Amino acid sequence: MLATILSINSFVVANFLSNPITDPVAIFLTILAIMLVAPLLFERLQLPGIVGLILAGVVVGPDGLGLLERDGTIVLLGTVGLLFLMFMAGLETSLDDFKEDGDKATLFGIATFLIPLVIGTGAMLALGYGWLAAILVASCFSSHTLLALPVLNKLGIMRASAVSVTLGATLITNVLALLTLAVIIKADEGSLTLSFWLFLIPALTIYTVACLWGVPILGRWFFHRFGHDENAEFTFVLATLFVVSYAASVIEIEPIIGAFLAGIALTPLIPQVSPLMNRIQFIGNALFVPFFLISVGMLIDPVALIRQPRVLLIAGVMIGAEIVGKYAAAWIAGRLFGFRSPDVMVMFGLSIAQAASTLAAITVAFNIGLVDQLTVNGVVAMILATSIISPWIVQRWGRKVDVVAPKSEGAPQALMRRVLVTVANPSTEDTLLNLAIILARAGEGTLLPLNVICDRKRAVSAADKRQQVKLLETAEDIAHATVTKVEPIGRVDDAIDKGILRTAVEQDASLIVCGWKGYSSYKDNFFGDVLDTVASRAQVPVLVTRFVYPISNTGRIILAVNRQQALSENFAPTLEIVQTIANELKSTPQVLIVSGRRQSLLDKGALCEISPEITVEQVKGSLFKRISKRIQPNDLLVLEVNTSKKQIAGMPAIGYIPEEVVRSHPNVSILVAHYPLPTKPKHQPKRQAKR
To answer: Is 0.85 topped by the overall pTM?
Structure first.
């Protein structure tokens, strides 16, 4: 009896392994199990999760256990994952990184593309590859994926010059590698003729300009019109990705190039700390990209490593050629730029990792039959090796990289420790919360959404409580979507302003963020409104904001101050707040300092706290008139106000200039930083006491 049961079980297992799974539910369940287990297992082994997904695809693929067949569904979802992978790579590539060290980034980008390309082509030709296949495989060595970025964040060297150069070079080398792929494919098809070049160059130019210039304009309009509909935002991003990718195929280049450009074009519109970015990364990293990685693993024949030792030779040559080429490029560029050895090694470590662009290119090449399965196996082995080497090199040498930290770094971090934000208007809640989340995340702090119900004139109704709960639940959901610490607070008080002030004290808030309608009535000015009371009596700084569009639509950020404010002790935290917002929005911060007509302009020594990359302009005249000449629609104007010792009756706590700007420029958003204590100029000599 026992023998019969064992024989039946053996037959079932053998039959199960010999035939691929066909039930849709079982297929999806198997893939979900792989997505869950494989990354966790390999990360416990100190290996990248992508390696686990690829190897899992090998195991369950047709050349492994044969559990899954690489059918049309797997190919479709894998293609979507491929486009998503390149799209997210574009989202991590900011044009601002390229502008910061443009000349150095261009030189290093060209070097880290050409040198590995030449060395790799020679190595692949020596292995018997044809010219087209050799150049295409070598172009995979030329591109790179910034897998070690989390290591840079932990080490705190993101502002190092070597890192900025490498970030900018990533744009150059990846675009060149993808263009090389497009040209090689056309050459393989036999259509690389003069007419192709006459069509490709103008079409590619128009296409690139339309993507990088037209998509942001369309995106700003859409987010401005429908920015409060989260589903519409996400659908728009997906539609943009696939429309741009399809347009690339129309002009006969690979859709992955379009996906990469779509990511670059949308980068300024999607803050890194935002629910929209979180949804994109979640859907991509949790679903589509794992499908692609598993589908790549299903292309690999593990038996070929034993049956055909040539795979090991190909992989060894690829790894050696890439290491030599990438190190030579980093060494030459480092010598020309005067970088130290640790800087050179960090550049080398960042540029050696292969993942997104390499997988994309080799998958396309395999699908058209330009390379065989042995080459795919060798490329996957190279990805495995470089994914391990890259973080190790950056970790090892990044500790020795010198970074000049901002002088005002300590105070703003404390300022953003506990950010209290008032939520009362559903139409403006998202924008206020996104601003507060950016600040709280920058200070690694906690978000405190607050809604106050006033019971002075009437009892609190059930409708009031329901609205309060709904507002706070929405705020909590948005905060959780961006992985921000949040403590929602619902309060009933005899006055809105008193409730805000009391909560700030009770919850130990370090910063208060309030919304502003943009003007004050005569009654408000005479008797004082909620905003005036909060700003004038708060014991912590208050940010008074008025956004006329979603915060992601911000173009430039202009900090306008007078001479006395530029010399005050509050200028440093205001500047750091501006830089924090600008970094998250990938915007360009500018500083405008206006001196009186009889005052002298400040020398550079007095402005040492301002980073060299920030544009500083000093002029004389009226602050309001100078602001009016420079601001444009979609700008965010930042002003600074200090509490005076004597509050003049009828005068708004934030002064008259913000109201004048709103009346003259209604399409400009404003942020007013209000500080509770008067400041003294740091560079003015102290008066001697009279005897």
So the answer is: no
